[in-house]
Amino acid sequence: MPDEQPSDRGAWVVLGGVHLLNRTAPRRPDEPIVLVRVPPQEVCRPATTVIVRWNALGPCPAEALHPGGTRLGAARIDGGELFPDAIAGPALRGLVGTEAAPGLVPLCYLAEHPGGGYHAYAQIRFHPEDACFVRTTRDPVGHGPVEELRWFDPVLTAHAESSTALNNHLRYFRKHFSGTELEIKYTLDPAPDIWSASMELLKALRDGKLEGCRPEYREEFQIHHTENHLFDVTGPEPEIGYASFIPTVTAGHVLKRKWFTEDAFARREELTPGLDIPPDRFETFLREDLNLQVRAMPPFQRVRYDIQCESLRTGHVYGIFLDRCALLAAPDVVLSQCELEYRRSRSILDHDQDEILIEMKRIDSWLCEYLASHGWAAEHTFYSKRSFLRDAIALRPDLATR
Q1: Residue 210: CA atoms inside 13 Å, Cβ hemisphere, count?
Q2: pLDDT of residue 227
Q3: Torsion angle defined by CA atoms of residues 25, 27, 33 and 39, in that order, rounded to the nearest 10 degrees
Q4: Would you say 240 and 226 are in contact if contact means Cβ atoms under 8 Å apart?
Q5: DSSP label at 179?
Q6: Which of 65, 334, 346, 384 sits in a 20 to 30 Å window from 125, CA-based?
């Protein structure tokens, strides 16, 4: 399906009982369905993800129907008054009645297809301020006037077939390239203050400067502040790379392994959480338990700000990280980087994995231009933490013993 521009074609937020999503009760022949006509909310077409912000909708025509299509009533309701506190507001309660109102939620976002029929986006997150919807129909369904509800049964069937994914607590449906890290790095020189740089970059994404992408819904920013104890794995040959111990907030450490190959863009990666090993036994564990040949690198402090960038067209989520690493024994020895990495996908529709590579290339081009325009980086690089620490020891041999 070729890309389309959002237009004034019909779009609706469909409301109904929450049991139609979680299947905690059977459908009833007399339960109301509410069609709320809204301005098209897709950032691009076709889209995988649609975010609806209630206060941004303005006055919306709303029509309550029985599943058979019998009209119950109509009203004009301001978007911000639909679900105050995520509970049906007074105008909605007047349409559907006091019995149905407590369980009323957004079921789906419905978008009219230019050739007829409708695309449906299932509601996966719902809050007083907004809701997030993910497309469940690859082809349009339910040709005919929207009020005839011919699309309704196919939409509920599509939701039921993917209910485990749509209703799970994370709402992350899949991760492509499992066990492989796809990453592009930029060395920031001169290095900016990464906090202010992160806020500026996040604002650019919120403002739609990267076409078709926005900060990930309600997961747009994360802060990481850790110490790392990294070991250069020098053998045996198939194991060459690094092993890094990262403390967790609760207890123990995560062991992060990376294997280096000729293709530095895609590298094998493995995380082992929950290791209860004291720092003075890290090297012994690697040598005796994992049979690795290792060399200890100087420990460093890592401060990283993660901007989660979601493609609303494909549902793929990419991390844009601004990262500062400083040696604990020599805080003046610093590496500042920006990294672009594929994280996960928010889609129940099948996608070609190559699509991720194409999309990463597009984001890479935009990010490279963005960083260059600020004077922070002119091109990307594959300079790793391992290489940084090796170079630091070469310049300051005294650090090797610390």
Answers
A1: 30
A2: 93
A3: 70
A4: no
A5: T
A6: 65
H/E element holding 92?
A: helix 90-96
Q: How far apart are CA 106 and CA 34, in angstroms?
A: 9
The reply to whether 225 and 292 lie within a common domain is yes
Q: Which residues of 39-57 are buried (b: 16+ CB within 10 A; e: fewer)?
A: ebbbbbbbbbbbbbebeeb
Judgement on whether residues 253 and 395 belong to the same structural domain of the protein: yes
The verdict on 133 and 187 lying in the same domain is no
Give residue 133's domain range: 11-167
- Does 156 share its domain with 296? no
Q: Measured between alpha carbons, how far is residue 34 from residues 76, 98, 126, 243 in Å?
A: 12, 14, 16, 55
Kindly provide the residue ranges of all beta strands, DSSP E only, lying in 250-398, ordered along the sequence: 253-259, 266-275, 293-296, 300-311, 316-327, 334-345
Is residue 272 within 8 A of residue 253, CB to CB? The reply is no
Q: Could you report the per-residue pLDDT of 55-66, keeping only the tens digit for each?
A: 999 999 999 998
Report residue 35: phi and psi, to 5°.
Answer: -100, 115
Confidence of residue 172 (pLDDT cuts 50, 70, 90): low
- Residue 200: which CATH number? 2.40.320.10
The verdict on 67 and 196 lying in the same domain is no
Q: Which of the listed residues 145, 167, 189 is the one where a domain comes to its end?
A: 167
CA 380 → CA 179, 186, 249, distances in Å? 23, 4, 32
CB neighbours (10 Å) of residue 304? 19
Burial class (CB in 10 A: 0-12, 13-18, 19+), 354: exposed
The owner of tokens 């129907």 is 65
Does some domain include residue 2? no
User: Going by DSSP bridges, is the β-strand pair 316-327/180-187 parallel, antiparallel, or unpaired?
Assistant: unpaired
pTM: 0.90
Greatest Cα pair distance, the chain, in angstroms, is: 82
Question: Do 48 and 6 meet the contact criterion of CB atoms below 8 Å apart?
Answer: no
Cis link prior to 236 (omega < 30° from 0)?
Answer: yes
Element (H, E) at 106: strand 104-112
As a whole number of angstroms, the distance between CA 369 and CA 183 comes to 17
The CA distances from residue 4 to 38, 113, 137, 212, 380, in Å, are: 19, 10, 17, 12, 32
First-to-last CA distance in the chain?
58
126-142 tens-digit pLDDT = 999 999 999 999 999 99
